[in-house]
Write a structure and sequence with these properties.
The protein has 2 domains: 104 residues, Urease, subunit C, domain 1; 309 residues, Metal-dependent hydrolases (TIM Barrel), CATH 3.20.20.140. The protein has 12 helices and 19 strands. Strands 1, 2, 3, 4, 5, 16, 17, 18 and 19 form a 9-stranded mixed beta sheet that branches. A 5-stranded parallel beta sheet has the order 9-10-13-14-15. A 3-stranded parallel beta sheet has the order 6-7-8. A hairpin with a 2-residue loop joins β18 and β19. The N terminus is likely disordered. Bound molecules: (4S)-2,6-dioxohexahydropyrimidine-4-carboxylic acid (DOR) and zinc ion. Its cofactor is Zn(2+). Catalyzes the reversible cyclization of carbamoyl aspartate to dihydroorotate.
């Protein structure tokens, strides 16, 4: 790092866009100004960032983040959650609606959106609830949220499934008017009453009530058919089973307008961790079998799964420590997502860095209709950029995370890669691996 700190021009010297040949990426006035031959760019007053060996990607976009504000500021706030996002290489996150109060009105989504703007670490796109209070009985004011300053395009009752087929149909029909999408948390409620972990031989051994794959797959099958019937757009949250991948593949072959995401933890971890009875591994949907993990990785590589989305779910210690059965489900994700994508997808040869950019930036931005994000790294595009050092390996230290919560399942685990810098419209939010 050198030269004047407040200049609005940055030269990312020797950066490798999408892992390709090194160039000098010049960011000026919020946009990518040029990609010059490596070592040649200069500009008066520019800040030069030594990006030798660093991979440059478009700023990451998360489709599924729980920021917990309003209501559970003891677990996370918009400020701390978006700090975690920037440190993880994200320039935009979708803030889930299961807050308290629920984000089911224009007033609440505007509040979250405004808090995001004030924090300034990344863009915050609020997700609107599908039903009032996530109650699953009456549609929320989807149109008013879409028309609000927050311009909501993604609607979800995440944490709960929109299990009523008539309501789901109406929601799908309603959002067509403003090009919205329903993001379904696919969980048949009756099949998962009291469920604690993946249903299988292990749940029997451990004496924990099972969450069967069919409870996810049945809802996805119904919803892709509903989406086809009404000609609307469906997104499936946190796909976790091999069977779900097969249904999505068939739906896409039929031309149904469905997209899907998988979490980093479902790409790396499996149900065997439940044998520890450590609630840090309790998550919804649950960690599945090794075959499921393999099928999910392959589906990301094939593009049947469009996006990796974190489902960053911070929880206060009192809700996460103690007995498995009483713990709330969920894991931190923002600060480790890119590292896990590197380990599970890049280092396995399933995806190159251009593929990572597509699944963690381009496609999620498109699904969320975030026009300024997920754009290619070329002249004239908004300068949303992350620089990652793929050569570093380091152990995850929960105490060093920016999130207000500590429920990472990767404590002490060595993961590859390090986010060195993040730029939001040409302004650094992270430099030298720390908040700028
Ligand atoms: O594990 C989860 N945690 N899954 C969800 O669907 C909700 C989330 C939360 O809000 O904690
Ligand atoms: Zn969910």
């Amino acid at each position: 790092m050198s030269a004047s700190a407040n200049s609005s021009t940055f030269i990312l010297r020797g950066a490798r866009p999408y892992g390709g040949d090194p160039v000098d990426l010049v960011l000026r006035d919020g946009a990518v100004a040029e990609a010059a031959a490596a070592g040649t760019a200069s500009a008066a007053g520019a800040t030069v960032v030594d990006a030798d060996g660093l991979v440059a990607l478009p700023g990451l976009v998360d489709l599924h983040t729980h920021l917990r504000e309003p209501g559970r500021e003891d677990a996370e706030t918009v400020e701390t959650g978006t700090q975690a996002a920037a440190l993880g290489g994200f320039t935009a996150v979708h803030a889930m609606a299961n807050t308290d109060p629920v984000a089911d009105t224009a007033g609440v989504v505007e509040q979250v959106w405004r808090l995001g703007r004030e924090a300034g670490h990344c863009d915050v796109a609020p997700v609107g609830a599908v039903t009032v209070g996530l109650g699953g009985e009456r549609l929320a004011e989807l149109g008013a949220m879409a028309d609000s300053a927050a311009r909501v395009r993604v609607f979800s009752d995440d944490g709960k499934c929109v299990s009523d087929a008539v309501l789901m149909r109406r929601a799908l029909e309603y959002v067509k008017a403003f090009d919205g999408v329903i993001a379904q948390h696919a969980q048949e409620p009756r099949l998962t009453e009291g469920a604690q972990m993946n249903e299988g031989a292990l749940s029997g051994v451990l004496g924990l009530r099972g969450w069967p794959s069919v409870a996810e797959e049945a809802v996805i099958a119904r919803d892709v058919l509903l989406a086809q019937h009404v000609g609307s757009r469906l997104h499936v949250c946190h796909v976790s089973t091999k069977g779900s991948v097969e249904i999505l593949r068939l739906a896409k072959e039929r031309g149904i307008d469905v997209t899907a995401e998988v979490t980093p933890h479902h790409l790396l971890l499996d149900e065997s961790l439940a044998a520890s009875y450590d609630p840090v591994y309790k998550v919804n949907p649950p960690l599945r079998g090794k075959d499921d993990v393999q099928a999910l990785r392959q589906a990301v590589a094939d593009g049947v799964i469009d996006a990796v989305a974190t489902d960053h779910a911070p929880h206060a210690a009192e809700d996460k420590e103690g007995e498995w059965a009483n713990a709330l489900p969920g894991m931190l994700g923002l600060e480790t997502a890119l590292a896990i994508a590197q380990e599970a997808l890049v280092e396995t040869g399933l995806l190159d860095w251009a593929g990572v950019a597509d699944r963690l930036s381009t496609r999620p931005a498109r699904i969320g209709r975030l026009a300024g994000h997920g754009r290619p790294l070329r002249a004239g595009e908004p300068a949303n950029v992350v620089l990652v050092d793929p050569a570093v390996r380091r152990a995850v230290d929960p105490g060093a995370l920016a999130s207000r919560s500590r429920n990472t399942p990767y404590a002490g685990r060595t993961l590859p890669g390090r986010v060195v810098a993040t730029f939001l419209r040409g302004r650094p939010t992270v430099l030298d691996g720390a908040l700028a």
